[in-house]
Known about the structure:
Layout: E1 13-19, E2 23-32, E3 38-41, E4 47-50, H1 60-64, H2 77-88, E5 94-97, E6 101-104, H3 117-128, H4 140-154, H5 170-188, E7 192-193, E8 196-197, H6 198-211, E9 214-215, E10 223-224
Helix pairs in contact: 3-4, 4-5, 5-6
Amino acid sequence: MEVLGSSGQSSGKVWIEDHPTEGWSPGTVDSVGADGSYIVFDEQGEQFKVLQDKARPVDQACLRGVDDLLSLGDFNEGALLHNCRVRYFRDDIYTGIGGPILISVNPFCALPSLYSEQKQKFYRDRASASNNDLVVPPHLYSVGADAHAAMLGETRNQSIIISGESGAGKTEATKRILAYFANLARTTGPSTVGGMSIEDQVLRANPILEAFGNAKTVRNDNSSRF
Protein backbone atom coordinates (compact mmCIF):
# COMPACT_ATOMS: atom_id res chain seq x y z
CA MET A 1 0.00 0.00 0.00
CA GLU A 2 1.42 3.33 -1.06
CA VAL A 3 1.04 5.95 1.67
CA LEU A 4 4.46 7.59 1.83
CA GLY A 5 4.58 9.03 -1.67
CA SER A 6 2.44 11.69 -3.31
CA SER A 7 1.87 9.97 -6.67
CA GLY A 8 -1.47 8.69 -7.88
CA GLN A 9 -4.37 8.90 -5.42
CA SER A 10 -2.25 8.42 -2.33
CA SER A 11 -2.94 10.99 0.37
CA GLY A 12 0.09 10.06 2.48
CA LYS A 13 -2.37 9.53 5.33
CA VAL A 14 -3.71 6.51 7.19
CA TRP A 15 -6.39 6.15 9.83
CA ILE A 16 -5.36 6.20 13.48
CA GLU A 17 -7.83 3.81 15.09
CA ASP A 18 -8.77 4.26 18.77
CA HIS A 19 -7.42 7.80 18.80
CA PRO A 20 -7.60 9.07 22.42
CA THR A 21 -9.85 12.05 21.63
CA GLU A 22 -11.26 11.57 18.11
CA GLY A 23 -11.96 7.85 17.97
CA TRP A 24 -10.74 7.77 14.38
CA SER A 25 -8.31 10.40 13.15
CA PRO A 26 -6.38 10.86 9.91
CA GLY A 27 -2.64 10.77 10.43
CA THR A 28 0.23 11.72 8.15
CA VAL A 29 2.76 8.93 7.62
CA ASP A 30 6.24 10.19 8.44
CA SER A 31 8.38 7.07 8.20
CA VAL A 32 8.59 3.34 8.88
CA GLY A 33 9.79 2.26 12.32
CA ALA A 34 12.29 -0.46 13.11
CA ASP A 35 9.46 -2.94 13.75
CA GLY A 36 7.89 -2.19 10.35
CA SER A 37 5.08 -0.04 11.73
CA TYR A 38 4.21 3.32 10.24
CA ILE A 39 5.22 6.34 12.31
CA VAL A 40 2.20 8.61 12.02
CA PHE A 41 1.43 12.12 13.27
CA ASP A 42 -2.10 13.36 13.84
CA GLU A 43 -3.33 16.89 13.12
CA GLN A 44 -2.13 18.08 16.54
CA GLY A 45 1.38 16.70 15.96
CA GLU A 46 1.06 13.75 18.35
CA GLN A 47 2.95 10.63 17.27
CA PHE A 48 1.36 7.20 16.86
CA LYS A 49 2.31 3.80 15.48
CA VAL A 50 0.09 2.03 12.99
CA LEU A 51 0.77 -1.59 12.01
CA GLN A 52 1.18 -1.92 8.26
CA ASP A 53 -1.26 -4.83 8.02
CA LYS A 54 -3.92 -2.73 9.77
CA ALA A 55 -3.21 0.57 8.00
CA ARG A 56 -6.06 1.94 5.90
CA PRO A 57 -5.42 4.88 3.56
CA VAL A 58 -7.46 8.05 4.04
CA ASP A 59 -9.62 9.10 1.12
CA GLN A 60 -9.07 12.79 0.37
CA ALA A 61 -12.79 13.41 -0.09
CA CYS A 62 -13.62 12.86 3.59
CA LEU A 63 -11.05 15.51 4.56
CA ARG A 64 -13.17 18.05 2.65
CA GLY A 65 -16.48 16.86 4.06
CA VAL A 66 -18.67 15.74 1.16
CA ASP A 67 -22.48 16.02 1.08
CA ASP A 68 -23.05 12.36 0.20
CA LEU A 69 -21.07 9.59 1.91
CA LEU A 70 -21.54 7.34 -1.13
CA SER A 71 -19.27 9.68 -3.07
CA LEU A 72 -16.34 8.69 -0.85
CA GLY A 73 -13.70 6.60 -2.58
CA ASP A 74 -13.38 4.34 0.47
CA PHE A 75 -16.45 3.91 2.67
CA ASN A 76 -15.41 2.85 6.17
CA GLU A 77 -16.04 3.82 9.78
CA GLY A 78 -13.17 6.29 9.97
CA ALA A 79 -14.16 8.05 6.75
CA LEU A 80 -17.81 8.24 7.77
CA LEU A 81 -17.10 9.71 11.21
CA HIS A 82 -14.44 12.15 10.08
CA ASN A 83 -16.55 13.37 7.16
CA CYS A 84 -19.44 14.10 9.53
CA ARG A 85 -17.01 15.76 11.96
CA VAL A 86 -15.61 18.08 9.29
CA ARG A 87 -19.13 19.09 8.24
CA TYR A 88 -20.28 19.52 11.83
CA PHE A 89 -17.62 22.13 12.55
CA ARG A 90 -18.84 24.04 9.48
CA ASP A 91 -22.38 23.95 10.94
CA ASP A 92 -23.36 21.47 8.21
CA ILE A 93 -25.10 19.09 10.59
CA TYR A 94 -26.72 16.99 7.83
CA THR A 95 -24.93 14.42 5.68
CA GLY A 96 -26.64 12.23 3.11
CA ILE A 97 -26.20 8.57 2.23
CA GLY A 98 -27.42 8.16 -1.31
CA GLY A 99 -30.39 10.52 -0.90
CA PRO A 100 -33.07 8.70 1.15
CA ILE A 101 -30.88 8.32 4.26
CA LEU A 102 -29.86 11.36 6.25
CA ILE A 103 -27.36 11.53 9.12
CA SER A 104 -27.98 14.36 11.57
CA VAL A 105 -25.59 15.49 14.33
CA ASN A 106 -27.14 17.46 17.19
CA PRO A 107 -25.46 20.91 17.19
CA PHE A 108 -26.62 21.69 20.77
CA CYS A 109 -27.11 25.30 19.73
CA ALA A 110 -29.54 27.37 17.71
CA LEU A 111 -28.97 27.56 13.94
CA PRO A 112 -31.82 29.89 12.91
CA SER A 113 -30.96 30.11 9.21
CA LEU A 114 -31.09 26.33 8.92
CA TYR A 115 -34.89 26.27 9.27
CA SER A 116 -35.94 29.63 7.83
CA GLU A 117 -38.90 30.20 5.54
CA GLN A 118 -36.43 30.83 2.72
CA LYS A 119 -34.82 27.45 3.34
CA GLN A 120 -38.18 25.72 3.23
CA LYS A 121 -39.05 27.47 -0.02
CA PHE A 122 -35.70 26.43 -1.53
CA TYR A 123 -36.38 22.74 -0.98
CA ARG A 124 -40.05 23.05 -1.87
CA ASP A 125 -39.18 24.65 -5.21
CA ARG A 126 -36.51 22.06 -5.85
CA ALA A 127 -39.03 19.24 -5.37
CA SER A 128 -41.42 20.83 -7.87
CA ALA A 129 -38.70 21.45 -10.46
CA SER A 130 -38.75 19.33 -13.62
CA ASN A 131 -35.00 18.68 -13.47
CA ASN A 132 -34.68 15.44 -11.49
CA ASP A 133 -30.89 15.63 -11.67
CA LEU A 134 -30.82 18.81 -9.58
CA VAL A 135 -28.59 18.20 -6.57
CA VAL A 136 -29.28 20.07 -3.33
CA PRO A 137 -27.50 19.94 0.03
CA PRO A 138 -28.75 17.26 2.43
CA HIS A 139 -31.36 18.52 4.87
CA LEU A 140 -34.46 17.42 6.77
CA TYR A 141 -36.43 19.44 4.26
CA SER A 142 -34.94 17.52 1.34
CA VAL A 143 -36.21 14.28 2.91
CA GLY A 144 -39.64 15.83 3.44
CA ALA A 145 -39.75 17.28 -0.06
CA ASP A 146 -38.79 13.95 -1.64
CA ALA A 147 -41.39 12.07 0.43
CA HIS A 148 -44.11 14.55 -0.53
CA ALA A 149 -43.17 14.41 -4.22
CA ALA A 150 -43.16 10.59 -4.14
CA MET A 151 -46.55 10.54 -2.43
CA LEU A 152 -48.06 12.70 -5.18
CA GLY A 153 -46.19 11.08 -8.05
CA GLU A 154 -46.69 7.46 -7.00
CA THR A 155 -50.03 7.98 -5.18
CA ARG A 156 -48.69 5.87 -2.30
CA ASN A 157 -48.32 6.55 1.39
CA GLN A 158 -44.80 7.49 2.51
CA SER A 159 -42.98 6.99 5.82
CA ILE A 160 -40.12 8.96 7.36
CA ILE A 161 -38.28 7.14 10.15
CA ILE A 162 -36.37 9.30 12.64
CA SER A 163 -34.21 7.26 14.99
CA GLY A 164 -31.25 7.77 17.31
CA GLU A 165 -30.06 7.51 20.88
CA SER A 166 -31.43 9.59 23.74
CA GLY A 167 -30.51 13.24 23.25
CA ALA A 168 -29.73 12.85 19.55
CA GLY A 169 -32.44 15.32 18.57
CA LYS A 170 -35.26 13.05 17.36
CA THR A 171 -38.05 15.12 18.90
CA GLU A 172 -36.64 18.37 17.51
CA ALA A 173 -36.21 16.79 14.07
CA THR A 174 -39.82 15.57 14.18
CA LYS A 175 -41.08 19.04 15.06
CA ARG A 176 -39.04 20.61 12.27
CA ILE A 177 -40.25 18.25 9.58
CA LEU A 178 -43.85 18.49 10.76
CA ALA A 179 -43.54 22.26 10.57
CA TYR A 180 -42.25 21.87 7.01
CA PHE A 181 -45.29 19.81 6.01
CA ALA A 182 -47.61 22.23 7.78
CA ASN A 183 -46.10 25.14 5.89
CA LEU A 184 -46.26 23.13 2.66
CA ALA A 185 -49.97 22.51 3.18
CA ARG A 186 -50.54 26.18 3.93
CA THR A 187 -48.84 27.30 0.72
CA THR A 188 -50.37 24.70 -1.59
CA GLY A 189 -53.91 24.28 -0.25
CA PRO A 190 -56.62 25.72 2.00
CA SER A 191 -55.25 27.48 5.07
CA THR A 192 -57.83 26.06 7.53
CA VAL A 193 -59.82 22.88 8.00
CA GLY A 194 -62.58 22.74 10.58
CA GLY A 195 -61.72 26.18 11.89
CA MET A 196 -58.13 25.24 12.78
CA SER A 197 -55.06 25.92 10.68
CA ILE A 198 -53.47 22.89 9.07
CA GLU A 199 -50.17 23.89 10.67
CA ASP A 200 -51.69 23.71 14.15
CA GLN A 201 -53.32 20.36 13.39
CA VAL A 202 -50.07 18.82 12.21
CA LEU A 203 -48.00 20.18 15.08
CA ARG A 204 -50.56 19.08 17.65
CA ALA A 205 -50.16 15.51 16.39
CA ASN A 206 -46.61 15.37 17.78
CA PRO A 207 -47.59 14.72 21.46
CA ILE A 208 -49.85 11.89 20.29
CA LEU A 209 -46.99 10.31 18.38
CA GLU A 210 -44.70 10.63 21.40
CA ALA A 211 -47.31 8.99 23.65
CA PHE A 212 -46.81 5.74 21.73
CA GLY A 213 -43.16 5.46 22.70
CA ASN A 214 -41.80 7.33 25.70
CA ALA A 215 -39.43 5.71 28.16
CA LYS A 216 -37.09 6.56 31.01
CA THR A 217 -33.41 6.32 30.10
CA VAL A 218 -30.15 7.08 31.91
CA ARG A 219 -30.06 10.42 30.08
CA ASN A 220 -33.69 11.47 30.07
CA ASP A 221 -36.69 10.70 32.32
CA ASN A 222 -39.11 11.14 29.44
CA SER A 223 -37.25 10.17 26.29
CA SER A 224 -39.16 9.93 23.05
CA ARG A 225 -38.86 6.50 21.48
CA PHE A 226 -41.10 7.19 18.51
